[in-house]
Every structure is written in structure tokens, then in C-alpha cells.
Amino acid sequence: MSCKLTQRFVPGYLDGELDLSLTIEMETHLRVCAECAQELERQQALRAALQRSSLAYAAPSALRERIQSSLRSSAPAETPERAGAWRPSQLWRPLHHLRWAGAFAVLALCAVTAWQLLPGLRGPASSQQLATEVFASHVRSLEGNHLMDVVSTDQHTVKPWFDGKLDFSPPVEDLASDGFPLVGGRLDYLEGREVAALIYQRRKHFINVFVWPGAAGSSSTQTLEPRQGYNMMRWTREGFEFWAVSDVNAQDLADFVRLLEARITPESK
User: Fold this and answer.
1) Could you say which of 52, 70, 90 is where a domain stops?
2) What secondary structure does DSSP assign to 92-151, as a single string?
3) What pLDDT does 119 receive?
């Protein structure tokens, strides 16, 4: 996420209004960007100052009583014999059953949160959904200055950098001798989990390679997908999922993937 986007979302982050994906991106960016972290601190200090100053105003308890009284008086009267009867249709009557609507809202929020936090409860994301996430992550990385968390010219710096930051050790190979030098890496998020992003270069073009564990022993051939002027390829090898995204031409990307696949062996993990 770029600094411009982060600072735009700071108020929503403070109010807890961002979805899970944006919240994770915000917190990741704030950990590595001092300028955005300072902006967050400034807004937190402003909020605290406003709450302490004479500008803060707490609504009197009488206001709550008037609202509750108004809600009660707006409810239709019921006959004695049916006053205690519960009817499903009552749940949907506005105002009289706002507390039921609030309860359903809480339940819905819990369900959505569980759906986002527990991928195992909801089955794998569709291929197109994942492709959209990968593409968006690639484009975001090219905005501003968040292409790389670690800069390097070989795998001996990049691979150790991931130690302790991920729950897996990604295979990292340098293809400088083949015209695709490894220039760095970073942490990213896909399908609600942290993944490794390896950055390669082809002349003036960057290639993002996203890596995370897949099914043990899985292996599949590459699949090419053009999207909005970019090319994307995905494949599995040695128990890892791979996605490569770049604006290099399709042949260059295919050559890069072929070279990378040839280097990835059980010993390279």
C-alpha cells in the first residue's frame, strides 16, 4: 500500500471501519513507514485532545430516556391475549425491535470475520478471485516505494531475510546469469495469509513472484493469463504455489518461469 493510500485510510483505520484486508495492509505498511506511523500518531493525539477539551460533549441521560420513550410510544398496541405471543414477523418491525436488528448485525459481523480469518471453513478461493488479488498486489507494489522490503543482488541476502517472518522457507533463486537478476523481496498478503514476494528484473521491467506453500508434492504446468497490459503465470512445484506477474512480454515471462522452475529442486527449499 502506498503512503498516499495509507494516509487517506488513517481515519477509517482509527474508527475500525476498514475491512480485514485493508486493516492488514495498513498495519504492515505502518510497521515499515515512519512517515505514515507519525501521521497515525498525529491523528490519535488530535482525537485525544478533542475528547479532553471543551469541544467534547456527552449526551445527557435524559436524551436516551426520551428516545426510548419515543420508540415505545411508536409501537402499535397489542391485545392482552396476544401481547405475550411471539411472532417471527415482529423481528422485522422497524424501531420496535431495533435491538433484534442489532443482534443480527453482530451475528453477521461475526460470520464475516470468521469467513475472512478462517480460510479452512470456506474452501479455496476461486482461481479468478486469487488472480485478482495477485494482480492488485503487483500493481500496488509498483506504486510509491513499496516494491521491496529487502534489496539485494543475490539469494544469499534475500532468503535469510525471510527467516522468522514467515511460517515457511520460500525457495529463492538468482537468475542474473540468464538475464533475470534477483533484486529483492518483501512480505505480502494473499488469501488472508502472509506470502513471500520475490522481485526480479528484466531490463527496466520488474517481475513479482509470489510464493506460498501448496499441497505437498503438488506439481502443475504454467498457465498464462494476460490482464490489463500485464502477463500473469501460475504453477505449482515442490509443494509451493507460484504466481509471476509483470509487464514484460509473454515470451520473456514464459522464459523466466521455465528457468526458475529448472532451478527449484527439493534441495533449494
Assistant:
1) 52
2) GSTTTTHHHHHHHHHHHHHHHHHHHH-GGGS-PPPHHHHHHHHHHHHHHHHSTT-S-SEE
3) 45
C-alpha cell at 147: 516494491
The predicted-structure confidence for 165-217, as pLDDT tens digits, reads as follows 999 999 999 999 999 999 999 999 988 889 999 999 999 999 999 999 987 66
239 lies in some domain: yes
Q: What local confidence, expressed as pLDDT, does residue 146 receive?
A: 76
| 131 and 47 within one domain | no
How many domains is the chain built from?
2
Tell me: do 227 and 137 sit in the same domain: yes
Could you tell me if 146 and 238 lie in one domain? yes
- Residue 256 sits in a domain whose CATH number is 3.40.1000
CB-neighbour burial class of residue 23 (10 A; exposed 0-12, middle 13-18, buried 19+): middle
**What pLDDT score was predicted for residue 191?**
82
And the C-alpha cell for 267?
534441495
Backbone angles phi, psi at 223, to 5 degrees: -125, 125
Q: Enter the pTM of the model.
A: 0.54
Classify residue 201: in a domain, yes or no.
yes
Q: Is residue 193 part of a domain?
A: yes
Question: 213: closest CA among 182, 175, 174, 242?
Answer: 242
Q: Is 133 found in the same domain as 261? A: yes
Q: Which residues of the chain register pLDDT less than 70?
A: 1, 51-59, 74-126, 144-145, 153, 216-219, 266-269
CB contact at 8 A, 94 and 76:
no
State which residues form the domain around 237: 125-268
